[in-house]
Amino acid sequence: MNESALERFLASMLKLERPVRPAASAPTNVAGEAMPAYAIDGGAPVPLTEVHHPDGRLSRYPPPEHWADWVEYDGARWPEKVPRRYTLVPTICFNCESACGLLAYVDKTTFEVRKFEGNPAHPGSRGRNCAKGPATHNQTYDPERILYPLKRVGERGEGKWKRVSWDDALSDISSRMRESRSVRKTGIMYHVGRPGEDHYTNRIITSWGVDGHNSHTNICSAASRAGYALWSGADRPSPDHANARTVLLISSHLETGHYFNPHAQRIIEAKMNGAKIITLDPRLSNTAAKSDCWLPTWPGSESTLLLAIANHLLTTGKWDREFVRRWVNWKTFLSDGATVIRASGLPDARKAEILATMPGGDDAELTFERFEVALKALYAGFTFELAAAESQVPVDRIREAAKYVAQAGNRLAAHVWRSASMGNRGGWQVARCLFFLNVLTGSVGTEGGTSLNTWNKFVPKAYKSPPPFDAWNELHLPHEYPLAFYEMSFLLPHFLDEGRGDIDVYFTRVYNPMWINPDGFMWMQALRDPAKIKCHVALTPTWNESAWFADYVLPMGHAGERHDLMSQETHSGMWVGFRQPVRRVAMERAGKKVERTWESNPGEVWEESEFWVDLTWKMDPDGALGIRQWVESIREPGKPVSQDEYWAWMFENSVPGLPAAAKAEGLTPLAYMRKYGCFELKETNYLPYEHVVAGEHASVGPEGLVSDASGARVGVLVDGVVRAGFGTPSGKLEFFSPTLRDWGWPELEHTVPWTLDSHVHPREIDRAKGQMILLPNFRLPHLIHTRSANAKWLYEIGHNNPVWIHPEDATRLGVHTGELLRVETEIGWFIDRAWVTEGIKPGMIAMSHHLGRWRLQEDAGGNKGTTALASLDEDGKGGHTLHMLKGAQAWKGPDPDTERIWWKDVGVHQNLTHAVQPDPVSGAHCWLQKALSVRKAVAGERHGDVFVDTIKSRELYRRWLALSRSAVDHSPNGERRPHWLNRPLKPARNAYKLPEKPFGRG
Amino acid sequence: MPARALARSRAYGLLGDLFLEGLTVSTLVAWRQVRGGVLLDAAASVDLEDAAEAHARLLLIGVPAYEGAFLAADGLLGGDVAAAVRRDRALAGLGDPPGHEPDHLGAELGWLAFLCGAEADARRDGVAAERIERIIALQRSALDAHLLRWVPQWSTHLRGLPTRGEADGVYVRGAELALAVLTDHRESLGGSAPGWSLPAPAPVLEDPRAGLRAIAEHLCVPCQCGGYLARDTIAAAGRALDLPMTFGARADLVEGLFCAAAQYSRVPDVCTALDALLAGWIDAWTSPYSAPWVDRAAHTRALLARVAAAARELPP
Fold it and tell me: Most buried residue among A59, A694, A884, B247 by CB atoms closer than 10 A?
């Protein structure tokens, strides 16, 4: 610009009619991607920690060195820039078993939690969370949550409560426990739901000296656990998905898997690195949709298909012969298997071929070459064509899956958790057949293979441990189920109903048995009966249908309100995580004294860890029962142990490597865990069974098990070297199970990986009569089994569970999407809407299991936006009806979000209509239901209505009970159960003796 | 001289509004009253939607019109640089502009409008000379310590952006006009330009772990690089070399450009293209206030030369 132009411009300014200055406004936000980034006024900007994830994504997190004092603009005040100061406190998510890391942003002024985000220091979740993690905030500030201890005032289920102090509740409950414990060791029962924690409560229960642990596992994973344990001694697989060449899943792992978030992110990493994914699922799950090979198998055919792949590996030579030779108990099969083969239903020619390999008692002739011949002959009948016919899957797709397994080499990552294992009678064999592929490919504990949970999970020891209790509660593990992998918890109301016992004090902990278990009306009858359950204490963060029938409802904290220790086998490493009451930690960082965690939580919400200490102390105030010592402080004898002392001892003495890591940062181990919320013990832990071990060799068993003079296991002799081996009785992988043979299940189809007929085998489902299979054991990934109903954010994503039905079946029934269907099971029926989709196999219907929550009062017992108002009716002849009166609704409360409930349908409570179906071996509930009829609803049948005939419930229970084989008839040693099999809490050996008067035996 | 001060005050105010809010109904009326069509003709038809889009594209996304974007050691807004502007404004009794950062160009021009208006009022009212001197000292400080340290660079980079329509020209011409008024204003105050320096350059290549990401981030911080690499400028460099471009933040773009070049053994070509850009900047900046920028751009040219030489030594 030249000078004259400038002069003209300035001159014109003097003649300007100055316009009114326009009102200021915020700069236009154009797509956001290039908006300049802001630092913080008056402070040095802090570069965020960048994490480049293996799948190529990038996340940014506040660096840990700034967690104690972190400043962010208040998003709610945008476009104003109002800085807020936070202290960031790590904790562990409480919304599933994965135990992902969370980072709570606690306002340093108000001590309110602003939000929960991912903890980048957590080795399992690596800073990433699913929708359930951030929703912890929604749960914490749920306007309907229980904030104070409540005691029942009217009759059970009447819905009348009064607020009591923690001290009053502790005094009453502890006195009942003291009374019970002084007369018997089976009167107190703790029924744990999910998520769990590692060790703390189990230690407390053990200290009470009672057989008091009951769990949900037999409706969850017991069948899979049984299958893996019978093979290896460890009860869970730990696939190294991230490094696999082939990922083989019998589940909807990417959406609901175990462990969903940590596994899903690693499965996708593997896929991005070229791995193939195979999924067996009759439903087109998100996982199936992401798979290279989807095998929509008819339920119960999974074992056949897996064995066809095994046969393919054997016949094509694509198996790891050397691994099998070194690590499988093939000698036992050759030496002991002849009887099994002779009694089997194999064709005579094949029997002869196999028997020819079995030399009898001459050890020298027990050669691997013979086993190889036997093995190939044994599985020769499992052809692709047989698998295709059984599974109703095209044969070429099975061949394709076999090809992917074969090309995996020793990098086959495989997993089954619920799905087919928990769906079918005999489902435990699905796990055995699946792990058989790991064994054949040598991908056991390898990089990219499948490890066992004990190699990747770590549970430290507490400062002192009570001895095993000398008691056996027949309500947990009755003599009919000697191999039940976990307590027969879902049969409890039937056991009580037929007079097997009663309970003095019954704790349900984050557990809603009436809603989540099958046959819920039987539960309701039990929960209502004060003669059967004398005192029911519901420890729960939120209202639920079972708590409604309790005597005490005691509010326990969510992820940011409690101390727990967690470790899970999420990948090839090993870590421990520390769940913390984040407001308490924040207050203590600010120098405020907190005596009990409930002082820092909303209302008087407490945590179990402190609750158990105080309860146990009050149960044995003078130490006369010998119980109090286990919760007594070491630093201050005569006082209860504090949480700080408890965890400080553990982190200082029982977590290898943690003290050194803490010291490097100038911290105590406890301060380190409070700062980071987790510690990685091992980055990888491959092939631990190969570790060479030293020790005395007093004796060597037939498979090489080496013991010392005291009989304690040293290791396993393999090719002249003693190695760590596996946790089975032989120390080897037990292809042939002497345990099953000796405990009443000696048939071929039980002793080796084989197929078992499911209760929903095609022969059992008369499709010509309109019978179908109801598949209820899947869920949507953003929901929690029974506890989503306190999180509006989660329900907003998905809140109903329509009946998936194939177009062929829909046409046959004349039903369209959105129309009502009446589904009749063997004990009742329910009404739900149809969703017509090709995503389910013809002949089946499917329905996710976690929806259909209800409450009995307008303003109590559940959240109005996530539960339906319902009524219950009884006909006096065993018939129970649940009527849905009103669906979800918006309402005005302290949280304005409750006014934005836009849905009404919150699903249908189908589990009420499921009969109990205990697998006779594993004890697991077999979730797949026979749908006797499926038809369009008629006038008067309303969405959500449920009817159950509990007379039929009892019939079905007895029919399934009759399939069991009692230890009374089959125990080889006069004990109730093989001692080597784990229990959550293992009693003293003396308690294993069979009862003198077994129930039902006169 | 009250007239000159008043003229400057109004000029700064009008320009400040233009950069803060873009061309709006009210500023359009004012600009049409300016003789000579210095920004736009009196009869020119202007689509205000286009003008708003151009304002966001050029001044927010293209080359952010913030002092902090140029002078802060990390190139982030709202940090120490903005705080310093806030403090200096407060010395004159001026608070934050509502809804805006104090170091936005429009806000800084508004600050000068305030100071020049105060000078005009003082001269008109015949107040004591020392009070007028104090007001002028504040003007000098605003010019020397803030605006003239970065507006010439910002203006150069704005001019270098591709134009997409008539409305773009309003802001480009406005930038030239603002720089001319600032320069004239400073000359009228007398005295030489004080020396100043940019934050010390990070020794990015001295760290053996430094990869392309570190180099890209270095180049995207103006006071480290010696100028502002706009998104369009980076994309144009990629297109000229026929290299595929990625998307994301500017550092992602530069890193992507280098990565793509590495795949095709063309890292030296990228360095050459960037070097030509820097050379052009150096040629454009002749004022003594720009000396630190010239030095920094020369430093970066040397850095690019080292990168190019290292790349040439790599096996194909």
Answer: A884
> What are the structural domains, with CATH classification, of chain B?
2-189 (1.10.3480.10), 204-313 (no CATH)
Does position A257 have pLDDT exceeding 80, yes or no?
Answer: no
- b/e burial code for range A276-309 (CB count within 10 A of at least 16 → b): bbbbbbbbbbbbbebbebbbbbbbbbbbbbbbbb
Name the token pair of A970: 């089959």
CA–CA dist A508, A517 (Å, integer): 13
Which of B37-41's residues contact partners 24+ apart within 8 Å by CB, and which partners?
B38/A1, B38/A5, B38/A8, B38/A9, B38/A12, B38/B173, B38/B177, B39/B170, B39/B173, B39/B174, B39/B177, B40/B169, B40/B170, B40/B173
Q: What is the pLDDT of residue A41?
A: 45
Q: Is A58 on the interface with B (CB under 8 A)?
A: no
Q: Do B61 and A34 touch (CB under 8 A)?
A: yes
Mean pLDDT of B75-82: 86
CA proximity to A673, closest of A112, A155, A119, A264 = A119
Q: Average pLDDT, stretch B261-280?
A: 94
**Does the distance separating the beta carbons of A45 and B79 come in below 8 Å?**
yes
Q: Which of B21, B60, B77 is opposite residue A38, by nearest beta carbon? A: B77
Q: Is A2's pLDDT higher than 80?
A: no
CA dihedral A386, A390, A392, A393 (to 10 degrees): -50
By C-alpha distance, the chain A residue nearest B181 is A6
Tens of pLDDT, residues B165-206: 888 999 999 999 999 999 999 999 998 889 999 999 889 888
Phi then psi for B309, rounded to 5 degrees? -65, -40
Are A42 and B83 an interchain contact pair (Cβ–Cβ within 8 Å)? yes
ipTM: 0.87
Which domains does chain A show, CATH number per domain? 43-141+561-600+655-682 (no CATH), 146-211+471-557+610-635+975-1002 (3.40.50.740), 222-458 (3.40.228.10), 688-723 (no CATH), 762-961 (2.40.40.20)
Q: Is B76's CB within 8 Å of A21's CB? A: no
Nearest chain A alpha carbon to B65: A36
Contact criterion met (CB < 8 Å) for B21 and A20: no
Considering only CB atoms, which chain A residues are within 8 Å of B4?
Answer: 10
Neighboring chain A residues of B249 at a CB cutoff of 8 Å: 33-34
Q: Which residues of A touch B61 (CB under 8 A)?
A: 30, 34-35
Indicate the helix (H) or strand (E) that contains B278: helix B267-284
Give every CB contact of residue A934 below 8 A, 6+ residues apart in sequence: A770, A772, A805, A809, A813, A821, A822, A823, A824, A845
pLDDT for A79 equals: 66
Q: Which residues of A touch B83 (CB under 8 A)?
A: 41-42
Q: Given this model, what pLDDT does residue A28 score?
A: 25
- Residue contact A17–B13, C-beta within 8 A: no
Q: Which of A2, A6, A16 to mutate to test the interface with B (most CBs of B within 10 A)?
A: A16
Q: Do A935 and A436 touch, CB atoms closer than 8 A?
A: no
Q: Which residues of chain A neighbour B82 with C-beta distances below 8 Å?
A: 41
Residue type, A171: S
Task: Please tell me which of the candidates A10, A40, A79 has its beta carbon nearest to residue B8.
Answer: A10
What is the per-residue pLDDT across A20-51, written as a single tens digit (0 to 9) for each? 333 222 232 222 223 334 444 445 567 777 77
Is there a contact between B60 and A13 if contact means CB atoms under 8 Å apart?
no
Q: Kindly state the helix (H) or strand (E) to which residue A634 belongs, with its residue range.
A: none
Pairwise CA distance, residues A781 & A131, whole Å = 8
Taken in order A479, A480, A481, A482, the sign of the CA dihedral is: positive
Is A349 an 8 Å CB contact of chain B? no
| Alpha-carbon gap, residue A137 to B282, rounded angstroms | 54
